[in-house]
Design goal:
It is an enzyme of class 2 (transferase). One of its GO terms (biological process) is peptidoglycan-based cell wall biogenesis. The protein is an all-alpha fold and 313 residues long. It has one domain. Helices cover 75% and strands 0% of the residues. The chain is built from 11 helices and no strands. Helix 2 packs across helix 3. The longest helix is centred in the first third of the chain and has 28 residues.
């Protein structure tokens, strides 16, 4: 299944931007030297964006199946990072195994089967009841509530929330052809990721006081406001590829940017609680998989249900 023409043009535009960014990054490296930490970080981010864009392009070319498989693998990698950080006891092994071998494949089966009823309640109801039952079978009661809550939270973030991204491809919207649903996914990911990047850019350009130094020392007030405002404008400009008007796209863009921002703060709080800076080192310049998708974890379910509730046929 090939991409719709609009998606192809969007990817072409992204690749052009990456080519220009790569050229600028290499020019700055030659001018200021390879030891400059800011320029090194910039080039690492550009490299990571090349990798992620190519992976997304490959998935989108293969349509719904390719995208669903891609996010299944992303959820698997996110689960592994989360488990590595919070897993401490052998008695929790079977709860963790249930996340990997039961909740993960079954949730994505419901996505691919377009079974909205089970997709929307399987983990929040059945998964949340199953995990403490499995944990209780070990007979270990020490910190039971805390251990169970960690496992439930892991399933919610890494499986349930992320599974809403490929689920966008299976929506039936009024006046919007199903094969164009990939544009919804591009809209959501593009706006949320642009917000992250623009917050970084505005923060470096303007500086100023930190917005939440205890959770995210690098985020500034100017960066947050400037990044979210710029990404909201981008959302309005992307309205023609969606079923939204420009004002609707801007409003939805603002909501998903805010959810992405809060998602980043929550995931940073978990990392700080466990004394680490990154979830992993899978992606050069971006830490682990969860470091790259933390904002999407919170934005995707909200975006999915806004679109389904107001535009579903």
């Amino acid at each position: 299944m090939m991409m719709v023409p609009q998606a192809g043009w969007i990817f072409a535009g992204v690749f052009m931007v990456l080519v220009v960014a790569s050229a600028i990054g290499q020019w700055l490296k030659r001018k200021h030297g390879a030891d400059n930490a800011t320029i090194t970080n910039l080039n690492a981010r550009i490299y990571a964006w090349w990798i992620m864009t190519l992976v997304l392009l490959a998935a989108f070319v293969f349509g719904r199946a390719g995208t669903t498989i891609l996010f299944f693998l992303i959820s698997f990698a996110a689960l592994r990072e989360f488990m590595t950080l919070v897993y401490r006891r052998r008695s929790d092994y079977y709860s963790m195994a249930a996340c990997f071998y039961v909740l993960l494949p079954v949730q994505y089966y419901f996505v691919f089967d377009q079974w909205y009823g089970m997709f929307s309640v399987f983990i929040p109801i059945y998964g949340f009841l199953l995990l403490p039952i499995i944990a209780s079978m070990s007979g270990n009661t020490e910190n039971f509530l805390e251990r169970t809550a960690k496992t439930q939270w892991m399933a919610m973030i890494c499986i349930f929330c992320l599974s809403h991204v490929p689920a966008l491809l299976f929506l039936n919207l009024d006046g919007f052809a199903n094969q164009n649903n990939i544009l919804l996914l591009i809209f959501m990911i593009g706006v949320v990721q642009a917000s992250d990047v623009l917050q970084y850019v505005w923060g470096k350009l303007v500086g100023g006081p930190k917005i939440m130094p205890a959770l995210s020392p690098s985020k500034t007030v100017s960066g947050t406001v400037g990044g979210i405002a710029s990404a909201t404008l981008l959302a309005a400009l992307m309205a023609p590829i969606t079923p939204f008007t420009a004002w609707q796209a801007a409003g939805i863009g603002l909501v998903v940017c805010l959810m992405g921002f809060f998602g980043g703060l929550v995931m940073s709080a978990i990392k700080r609680d466990h004394g680490v800076k990154d979830w992993g080192n899978m992606i050069q310049g971006h830490g682990g998989m969860l470091d790259r998708v933390d904002s999407i974890c919170f934005a995707a379910p909200v975006f999915f249900h806004i679109v389904r509730y107001f535009w579903h046929g």
